[in-house]
Amino acid sequence: MHTCIDLFAGAGGLGEGFSRAGFDVSISVEKELTECETLRQRKLHNELLQTNQADLALKLATGEMDFAGFEKSYPKITDRVNKKVAQLELGTADFSTVYNKILNGLKNRKAGALILLGGPPCQAYSIVGRARSVGKIVLDNDPTALDKFYKDQRHTLYKEYLKVLSVFSPEIFIMENVKGILSAKTAPNASAGSVIEKIFSDLQSPFKAISDDPDFVKETVELGINFSEDGYVLFPFTASDKSDLFDNVGAGIAKNDFTIKSEKYSIPQTRHRVIICGVRQDIFKSLGRPGVLNEPPSITSVRDMIGSLPKLRSEITKEKVQAHKWAKRVKKEVSDLTALTNIDIADGCNTVEYPHKGQVVGNVELAKFIEDSLGVITSHKTRSHMVSDLARYYFCADFAERHGKSPKIEDWPVSDLVPKHANINRSGNRPSASGFSDRFKVQVWGKPSSTITSHISKDGHYFIHPDKTQCRSFSVREAARLQTFPDSYQFCGGISKQFHQIGNAIPPYLAYQIAKLIKNYLKGI
Q1: Domain boundaries defined on the chain
Q2: What is the torsion angle, in degrees rounded to the nearest 10, for the CA atoms of residue 414, residue 418, residue 424 and residue 430?
Q3: pLDDT at residue 133 is higher than 60
Q4: How does 237-251 read in b/e, with b if 16+ C-beta sit within 10 Å?
Q5: Measured between alpha carbons, how far is 348 from 124 in angstroms, rounded to an integer?
Q6: Which residues, in sequence order, are bridge partners of residue 279?
Q7: For 202-216, 242-256, 275-289, 331-345, which range has the lowest pLDDT when averaged over its residues?
Q8: What gap in Å lies between CA 234 and CA 6, rounded to an integer?
Q9: What pLDDT is attached to residue 525?
């Protein structure tokens, strides 16, 4: 069995894909406590299934037993699980600590290849993140903001990835980041794209890239570690008629070829991410380049993924409205704030549902990946909303139903329906916005959703459910499905933290497709 080290693991999206493809994710390193709790919960789930204890896995999924309860009743199992998760902040923790945690996780490693997974934190590279950090308004208020931005530690966290590469010398690595990394600069006057060029160069020769770090070299000497000077050849998963980035075999590969447009590969959202595959040079000389992702004939839509889940209603913030009066209260608000007629609000819905089935349609393999709940589907629950926002959600979903797209702020009527945000001008015949004009966005039934981001943890305005009768934002399970997390996947923490973990993750089904390519490639070893 091939073994994985998962760095910057988050809630485990990348690791889940490899685990489902038959790899052993022996150690996951993550700095956030709640994400580590989620990782332990998932690894315990997998451990229970592998030891034919589905009855206990069901108790874990439904909350009948929590992780602490398992630690008391089944300490041997949870001890194995705890060794597979390390809560460490890479870049802050001493490398000796990181090294020993990884080494401990690999103690029972089986024969097979070693794969390094990970996506160093990407906010500093994202286009939106750069705009917020060094946009004109920010610079006008703080002239030093530009220097602070380029000193941001998140720009160099990938070097922690290089350290593990140079010490453990895996046969293959998979590195993920945001698309904005392709245009990021290493300095204010550097050329666009200089960051990715530096990262490409360092990933080819990780030992060379970090050997000038005196603290790291000192630690490794004290630990008695022998560096590996193995180099790597870099490949994308999308350019089937080309070789590698550096023209080793045929036509060269452009940096944009490393961008994977998830909607092309059965992921029901337009999530575009840079994913780099590195193959150790000796493996490349023996096996050539890995395969590439296959595009299915059709996309997977929002309806395909969540259309079968039961209707819900949300709680109303700052109001105590009984369930049987909810539809009447919301209908009144919609009537008061819009000019719409024949208002249709779903009645008799709950705020939480535990369906036994929620069919994914249109893709048999994806359905098999997602529909793996042991009993009921959990986490189909909504957040609370202001009643005026419910009216806005209804207006947006009704607009999308009639026009096939979400309304821009210019499509809204000038009335109290328009939110009183600082960047919205409410004068004239139509409102206008100085920034984002789709602050309230409905996801359309027949298309992939827009990118599920961590912002979903703050509010649901950008993720409005397309069924106007529910006038709400996505539930936790709906967001998880659009990210292609299996139905059995449980997220720890409160609802905001659950949304945050989902939004930051790599879609597990995309990772699963990549993992199958790697597994097939490694058959040649």
Answers
A1: 3-121+157-299+507-524, 302-489
A2: -20
A3: no
A4: bbbeebbbbeebeee
A5: 45
A6: 172, 233
A7: 242-256
A8: 19
A9: 80
Structure tokens at 422: 């600082």
- Measured between alpha carbons, how far is 446 from 25 in angstroms, rounded to an integer? 35
Domain 3-121+157-299+507-524 sits in CATH at: 3.40.50.150
- Looking at the DSSP bridge assignments, the partners of residue 273 are 178, 260
**Which residues are CB-contacts of 341 (< 8 A; sequence separation ≥ 6)?**
none
Please tell me the predicted confidence (pLDDT) of residue 126: 45
- Angle CA 273–276–278, to nearest 5: 165
HSE-up of residue 475 (Cα within 13 Å, Cβ side) = 27
Half-sphere exposure at residue 164, Cβ-oriented, CA atoms within 13 angstroms:
34
Q: Which residues pair with 260 in a beta bridge?
A: 273
Q: How far apart are the first and last CA of the chain?
A: 12
Burial zone of 56 (CB within 10 Å; 0-12 exposed, 13-18 middle, 19+ buried):
buried
| Amino acid residing at 408 | K
pLDDT at residue 195 tops 70:
yes
How do the residues of the chain divide into helix, strand and coil, expressed in percent and rounded to 5? 45, 10, 45
Q: Residues 379, 476: contact at Cβ < 8 Å?
A: yes
* Tokens describing residue 503: 């939004």
8 A C-beta contact, residue 483 and residue 13 = yes
Strands (E), 245-375: 259-261, 272-280, 352-353
Mean pLDDT within 489-493: 96
Q: Provide the pLDDT for residue 128.
A: 44
Is residue 291 classed exposed, middle or buried when 0-12, 13-18 and 19+ CB atoms within 10 A define those classes?
A: middle
> What confidence tier does 129 reach under pLDDT thresholds 50, 70, 90?
very low
Q: Which two tokens stand for residue 409?
A: 């702020």
What the block records as the tokens of 139 is 């610079």
* Residues ≥6 apart with Cβ < 8 Å to 292: 236, 237, 238, 239, 240, 517
Q: How confident is the model at residue 153 (pLDDT cuts 50, 70, 90)?
A: low
CB 105 within 8 A of CB 86: yes
CA 212 vs. chain centroid, Å, equals: 33
Q: Who contacts 181 (Cβ-Cβ below 8 Å, separation ≥6)?
A: 122, 125, 195, 196, 199, 274
